[in-house]
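Reviewers asked in the last cycle whether our approach scales beyond single polypeptides. To address this, we selected a multi-component target totalling 528 residues and predicted its structure end to end. The input consisted of the following lines:
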Amino acid sequence: MTQTTVEPALGVALTIRNLSKRFGDQTVLQALDLDIRAGEFVAIVGRSGCGKSTLLRLIAGLETASTGQVLADGSPMDTGHFDTRMMFQDARLLPWKTVLQNVGLGLTGNWQPKALAALAEVGLTDHAGKWPSQLSGGQRQRVALARALIHEPQLLLLDEPLGALDALTRIEMQQLIERLWQQHRFTVLLVTHDVEEAVALGDRVLLIEKGQVGLDLQVPLHRTRSRGAAGFAALEEQVLSRVLSLPGKEAIPEPAPIALGALRWAL
Amino acid sequence: MAISFNSVGTQLARRAAPWVVPALLVVVWQWAATHGVLTSRILPAPLAVLEAGARLWQSGELWAHLKISFWRAAIGFSVGGGIGLLLGLITGLSKRGELLLDTTVQMIRNVPPLALIPLVILWFGIDEAAKLFLVAFGTLFPVYINTYHGIKSVDKDLVEMAKSYGLRGWPLFRDVILPGALPSILVGVRFALGFAWILLIVAETISASSGIGYLAMNAREFLQTDVVVLAILLYALLGKLSDYGARKLERLWLRWHPAYQ
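The resulting structure, written as structure tokens, was:
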């Protein structure tokens, strides 16, 4: 596997071994093993509470694992050699800093030109001097994306960053993320509850169930993917039926299938 | 023409409306005083109060008393508010500090500052220090509690985000925790400013040889009700001014807040 790394990926390769996380009596992740190639775009789906967000938070170092480890290019993540950035469902912008200051958070020296360039990449140059409260939800997420990109991360962790956006803004954001990923070639882990989003963006779709990888599916479709194509629909159906066939805690399916219909209609 | 005049008229009326009742009261007050309904021993006429103000201003007495009262409030508030802020930062930021100090501060907080007056007079006499101590003691706790509460209620998600962006120590405090706690701290400052004046009035009427409170108590001895009323109005004015200053600070420091846009 490693001898074929000729692609000019700036991303980091992840090796996850025997990763478990327990909160009290509850086991969220159980002895999970996973390999992610450098520069790969991995979409992670699963029902609410399946542990997909916990997996991301463990990789980001926001939680500590009960057992097991996460290796980046063969060495432990916490050494700090790897620049990892996380985007959350809410943008988490500092309301008392302007858009530009938010993008430059944690930078020192002459950071303004860099921050402006990052803002330009997400198309928000005109809003540099505004307060976050003056932006729409989609614009705030774009600022958060610019803030992550400015650090030129080797690993970008996206924890349902588009979950709270309306259908059209969401598709715009998906295209933006895809374009930036193709430019910068970092490794992306995207947690989502929207199966269509996962199939549209991922090189690979992972389904987490019962704290383990339940399904690991390559997406052999060319980019940019057309949602109406037969191959797309078939893959989406395959993942969805697998998610739904599993007897979950609640009988009610997740909002994903409903949002899916709405999206098709919007297109 | 008539319509535009009318709309200007309604706008003026709207502006003036809140002042109708106070103006009417002053008019009635003046009428009652000049027609002997109110004797000047109970309440002097508003014009008499104005005259007293003008007289004291010209003699320079008023300015001297105003200045000393203002400085007492300012110094007492700075010391008390400063200590309150410092203690609030310590207990808010450090678990150990909270464990060690919070209970003590909360206990002392429940002592009414005015109950300390006999002790304060015994300690400091009727010196400057007595008044400063009382004001400082009273303003410490509103600032302390609101600083502590403000830091505790800073959005944990923002702190987590900032840490994941590599902010630690001073930058984390400066960029995330302090601005997040600032709205609450400023509420404490406004409370403390109001309280500072109340305490100063009491301290100056009980034991002082200068200041607005002394002016009022001295005038009482000579039955100068006009000066007494003037002193009360001055306190109201000073209190209002300090509140205005605090609100200006809020507008300046919290201009990012949707409530101030």
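Chain A touches chain B through 20 residues (CB under 8 Å). We regard this as preliminary and will revisit it once experimental data from Aim 1 are available.
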